[in-house]
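Researcher: Please generate the 3D structure of the following complex. Treat every line as part of one assembly.
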Amino acid sequence: MDWLDQVPDPEIPVISVTDLGIVRGVSWEDDKLVVAVTPTYSGCPATGVISMDIETALRDRGISDIDIRIQLAPAWTTDWLSEKGRTRLEEYGIAPPSPAGGPERCPQCGSTDVERISQFGSTPCKAQWRCKSCAEPFDYFKCI
Amino acid sequence: MSALFEALLRLGDNTLILGHRVSEWCGHAPVLEEDIALANTALDLIGQTRMWLDLAGEVEGAGRSADDLAFLRDAWDFRNLLLVEQPNGDFGRTILRQFLFDTYHVELLHLLAGSTHPQIAAIAAKSVKEAIYHQERSGLTVTALGDGTEESHAKMQQHLEDLWPYIGEMFDDDAVDLELSDAGIMPAPSSLKEPVLARLTAVLDAATLARPADGYHQRGGRNGRQHSEHLGHILTQMQWLQRAYPGATW
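Model: Done. Output below.
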């Protein structure tokens, strides 16, 4: 798992695939290393790239027999984002998911006076918001 | 054709054809945010399609992949609702069609998440989160346009009159449905009617749109007997590459 924590998310490189909570388990089946990965959004084009990146990272560590298994259940939820991941997202300028359905504060200036521009954003996992204090638009990591 | 295979095609073909339709907006929507929203919705639907059609291919056991099923079948083999193959029209019509489908889809997926078939339950539990998000947005947009200007209201009311006859097909039971509902694998479509209509009516009321009277409804998509002429046109766009260059891959 520590090795996989060094594999960045291809769309949001400040967090790793383990921060994202999509690596559900790593186990040995004889000489084969089985990695269970759950997709974030059904159609997210990054899913294929993530599997490839995980495989490459493990090969670089000398493991040759690798099986990446896509696991659908239980379905991925933003509750699985790590605390480190949430902090890094905010530092990067993306408001982390909040059960309230919107960002707690502007990741730039910290103001709570924010409004939604659109429910969808540059990737399936994000929405577009705007800060009414500093007037900066920002991405919000949708809560699902 | 087994009942389970047929039922999985119905699920996957709905999301495939609607996903393709919605993707036609890419680069053409009225504002950038809506363009992105429509493209993201289409992406979710196509992602769901891959899960349903992969499972359909597995159940069929003839070695067909999701891609084979999407790109190498002809119109009469498709099992989608007639609603989803209807042309986009203007933005309001596209959003209304989306809202009608989303409302049905959320209800259906909620029930499928409790299926006795573990793979179906897993795909539905994953998809329903996306469908709820789509419905939230399409419902809000329908409300804003219906309860908007005189012109937007009149257009939305007309779109509603035009699309309403395509709702009934969602609730028709046939032998396939009954076999699967008896086995606890999928709900009988007729059982969706009451909750779906209640939800539709609540949003239409908020949108100040008058719900059309129930009467004759179009059917023939779910069983593939009589698709509208639009499906063939979609397929010529969607399938031309595989037809022109069989077996082409990235």
